[in-house]
User: Which sequence fits this backbone?
C-alpha cells in the first residue's frame, strides 16, 4: 500500500526525490571529515534533501551542510547498500526523516508494520524529528504513488489528529505534518486549508512541516492570499520549513515539480515566514533536473541572504 521502495531501495516519486538505483558512486573515505554530528539541529540550520545524484560529490567532499533530510521509505528495507550510504552520511551530519507513505488520511488503518520499520529507522539515525504529509496515498492495500488531497472537513480533522498523535507516540520523537501543494478543491470542504491543517496539528499535539513553496503554489492555483495561510500558523510548532522550485504550466497552473530554483515570490514568502516565526530549520528540495551539489548548496545559501 505504501509509496515505499522496500523491494529495491529506491523508487521514483515526484515528491520522493530518489529515483532508480542507477550507477551509484562508491563511498570514498575521507578521514579528515568530522565524525558523528550531534542529532539536534540548530534552530536556524540549513539542510538539503539527500539525492543519489549528489552522492559522488558528497562522499568525496563532505561539504558543509547543516543536515540532510532523507526519504524514509528509501531506507526502511533490508537492502544493505542504501543503509551503508545512510550510515556514512549520518556519521557526519544530522539526518531527519521525511516519509511519503504513511497514508494518514487513507481509508485503511495505519500500517503498523510500516510504523515499526519507521521507528527502527528513526532510532537508527537518531532523527531529531520525523515528518510525512497530510494526505492519503492509497486504498485497499494499493498505493497510488502520489500525495492525494482530501476534503477539509471536521470528521477528517479527527481522523488525521488521532492517527498523527498515534504516530508521534510510536516514534517517541516530534512528528510533523506537511501541507500539500493543491490542484483541486472539494465542494464538501467546510474549512480553509489552513483551518484544516492547523486544527489537525493542534488536536494531535504534533508539529508543522511547513512547505512555503506548496503554500505559494496552492495560493496561485486557488486564489487565496498566502500571507493569510502563514498568519494561521503557530510557529512555535514548526519543525522545519521546505523551500523548492515549481513549474508554471501553459494554462497558468503552478505544479510543484521541484525541478527549478526557488522563485522570487517564494523567497519573499519564506522571508515573511521568517519575520513571523523564525528561526526554523530550512530544507531545500530538488527532485528533478537536479543540479550539481555545489549549485544546490548555493541555492540553499540564498535562504540566509533573504532572511530579514
Ligand atoms: Fe515539501
Assistant:
Amino acid at each position: 500500500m505504501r509509496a515505499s521502495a522496500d523491494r529495491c531501495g529506491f523508487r521514483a516519486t515526484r515528491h520522493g526525490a530518489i529515483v532508480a538505483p542507477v550507477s551509484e558512486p562508491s563511498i570514498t573515505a575521507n578521514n579528515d571529515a568530522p565524525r558523528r554530528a550531534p542529532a539536534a539541529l540548530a534552530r536556524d540550520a540549513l539542510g538539503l534533501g539527500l539525492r543519489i545524484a549528489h552522492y559522488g560529490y558528497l562522499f568525496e567532499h563532505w561539504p558543509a551542510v547543516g543536515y540532510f533530510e532523507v526519504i524514509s521509505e528509501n531506507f526502511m528495507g533490508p537492502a544493505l547498500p542504501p543503509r551503508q550510504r545512510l550510515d556514512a552520511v549520518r556519521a557526519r551530519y544530522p539526518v531527519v526523516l521525511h516519509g511519503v507513505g504513511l497514508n494518514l488520511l487513507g481509508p485503511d488503518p495505519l500500517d503498523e508494520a510500516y510504523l515499526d520499520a519507521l521507528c527502527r529507522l528513526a532510532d537508527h539515525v537518531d532523527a531529531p524529528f520525523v515528518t510525512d504529509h497530510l494526505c492519503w496515498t492509497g486504498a485497499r492495500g494499493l498505493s497510488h504513488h502520489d500525495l492525494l488531497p482530501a476534503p477539509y472537513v471536521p470528521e477528517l480533522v479527527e481522523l488525521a489528529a488521532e492517527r498523527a498523535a498515534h504516530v508521534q507516540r510510536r516514534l517517541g520523537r516530534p512528528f510533523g505534518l506537511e501541507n500539500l501543494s493543491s490542484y483541486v478543491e472539494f465542494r464538501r470542504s467546510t474549512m480553509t486549508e489552513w483551518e484544516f491543517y492547523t486544527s489537525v496539528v493542534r488536536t494531535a499535539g504534533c508539529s508543522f512541516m511547513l512547505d512555503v513553496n506548496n503554500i505559494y503554489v496552492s495560493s496561485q492555483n486557488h486564489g487565496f492570499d498566502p500571507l493569510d495561510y502563514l498568519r494561521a500558523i503557530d510557529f512555535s510548532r514548526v519543525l522545519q520549513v521546505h523551500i523548492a522550485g515549481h513549474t508554471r504550466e501553459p494554462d497558468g497552473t503552478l505544479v510543484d515539480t521541484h525541478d527549478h530554483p526557488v522563485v522570487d515570490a517564494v523567497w519573499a514568502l519564506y522571508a515573511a515566514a521568517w519575520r513571523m516565526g523564525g528561526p526554523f530549520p530550512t530544507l531545500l528540495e530538488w527532485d528533478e533536473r537536479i543540479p550539481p551539489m555545489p549549485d544546490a548548496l548555493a541555492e540553499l545559501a540564498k535562504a540566509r541572504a533573504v532572511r530579514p
Observations:
- Residues 70-278 form a domain with the TIM Barrel fold (CATH 3.20.20.150).
- Residues 27 and 59 are 5 Å apart (CA to CA).
- Confidence is low (pLDDT under 50) at residues 1-35.
- The radius of gyration is 18 Å.
